Amino acid sequence: MSAQWKPLIEHKGYLRHFWHPVCTLSEFEKANASGHGPMSVKLLGENLVLARLDGQMMAADDRCVHRSARLSLGSVCKHQGKDTLQCPYHGWRYNDAGECTLVPACPDRPIPPRAKIAKYDCAIRYGIVWVRLDNSFDCTEIPYLGDWDSEGMKVVVAESYVWETSAERRWENFTDFSHFAFVHPGTLYDPFFASHPTVNVDRSHGELRFQLAPPKEMYETLPEEAPMGDFTYRCSMPYSVNLEIKLWKDDSKFILWTTASPVDDRTCRNFMVIVRTEDQQPDHVHLAFQKRVLEEDRPVIQSQWPIELDSAELSVGTDKISIQYRKWHRELSQAALGGKDEFKAALLSEVLEER
């Protein structure tokens, strides 16, 4: 590795204060024959177990406090009329608060007070399971997804996919206009229009917001299934993108929403939801096109080195979005070290460009 390399973001503890997706609800329900888990997931380098106990989704450390067996290898079963998560090794059972309620080898003895697993905030939204590892600041929300439950809109939640790159690299790939002409020629863009103007980038309510109008002249050169139109972005920090497209072909609405979840420093799990005005096309047509685009991106993004953002990378004017994005990440990282008030102020700061 080059001696000049230095990570852009050195302190990543701030990411624990955000909500991150860990699997789709469909993936969770398929992970175990019961449909209630348990399921193993990984977030920010930590092994977690998911289980649905008495109808409520639970996320906790995937480690029994007794002899450290993976709880995700266990089962969900009843104890005293309530669902519990049973360890596969010695059968210790944990309730929805993470407390051990039964030690089968010592049923008549008091359960040790320390017999409790760490439990985390967990919620289901948009057909996706979300986890927040640290709620001590309690100023973050599950990211925005437009028209999720609007009448007349068709919703498709795709299966998640894993890339060998950082979540920051994946986010920048999705919002990088300059790569379209070179990575997606004939798919999303006509290479003739390789240059593009800079855009206004606003920071508001925990989101980066900006708009782009690609040249309409290239519309006839692209596949019919390409969702081309006027782009409006609402990007919830740290890794979500809500791209609303006003389609040129009929002025209908097409929303492409994506989030990259940091499995660890070298890997991210990615989620995609398509929300569109009801049309006559089957879902697989839209999913297949997006998969085609992703497969054009993936080898290029996985080739970036170092995997983490590099402070020595050279930026130009058309990198304005990623410049602002990186700047905000650095601010959040430093603010989190100062405590809740500083972090909240940095997250909810309003920075609007003059028009």
Automatic annotation (TrEMBL):
Cofactor entry: [2Fe-2S] cluster
Domain Rieske positions: 19-131
Recorded superkingdom: Bacteria
Keywords: 2Fe-2S, Alkaloid metabolism, Iron, Iron-sulfur, Metal-binding, Methyltransferase, Monooxygenase, NAD, Oxidoreductase, Transferase
GO BP: any one term: methylation
Gene Ontology molecular function terms on file: 2 iron, 2 sulfur cluster binding; demethylase activity; metal ion binding; methyltransferase activity; monooxygenase activity
Matching CDD domains: Rieske_RO_Alpha_N
InterPro entries: Cholesterol_7-desaturase (IPR050584), Rieske_2Fe-2S (IPR017941), Rieske_2Fe-2S_sf (IPR036922), VanA_C_cat (IPR044043)
Listed name of the protein: Vanillate O-demethylase monooxygenase subunit
Species the sequence originates in: Pseudomonas sihuiensis
